[in-house]
Amino acid sequence: MGLQFLFMDDNAPCHRTVAAEQLLESEDIERMDWLARSPDLNPIEHVWHFLGRRMAARTLPPVTIRELRLALQDEWAAMPQQLIDTLILSMGRRCETCLAVRGDHIPY
Fold first, then answer.
1. Cα(18)–Cα(25) distance, rounded to whole angstroms?
2. pLDDT-derived band of residue 94, with 50, 70 and 90 as boundaries?
3. Does the pTM exceed 0.85?
4. Which of 8, 6, 84, 1 is nearest to 40 (CA)?
5. DSSP 3-state assignment of 92?
6. Secondary structure (3-state) at 78
7. What one-character-per-residue DSSP string does 14-77 give?
8. Distance CA 41, CA 78 (A)
9. Cα torsion at 82, 97, 10, 85 (round to 10°)?
10. Distance of alpha carbon 67 from its chain centroid, rounded?
11. Cα pseudo-dihedral 81, 87, 88, 90, rounded to 10
12. What percentage of the chain exceeds 70 in pLDDT?
């Protein structure tokens, strides 16, 4: 990651446990302030959705952790560049929408 990065999570309770806080602190990882009601502007959620659909569509679902890892790597490699480009290009519109609704939830 390099020396100048900021960690962002979604404020889910599992990300705010004492253990998670202690781990981040022990590794000197700075966390981005992220309001509990802020909309999820992270395009990675769409990538996870894509991977989930692709995994569900497999004729032979992975059974072991190794098979799951390999299947996810295959699907990641097969992800269309157009999907990634579209997500990146959508960020301006999504940020404008977020500002228009004053930080409330926005439709994906």
1. 10
2. confident
3. no
4. 8
5. helix
6. helix
7. GGGSHHHHHHHHHTTPPBPP--TT-----THHHHHHHHHHHHHT-SS---SHHHHHHHHHHHHH
8. 24
9. 10
10. 22
11. 140
12. 88
- Which residue type sits at 84? I
Task: List all residues 6 or more positions away from 20 whose beta carbon is below 8 Å from its beta carbon.
Answer: 14
Structure tokens at 78: 């097969």
Residues 1-47 have pLDDT tens digits of 566 777 777 777 888 899 988 988 898 888 877 666 555 677 787 88
Higher pLDDT, 58 or 5: 58
**Phi–psi pair at 64, nearest 5 degrees:** -105, 165
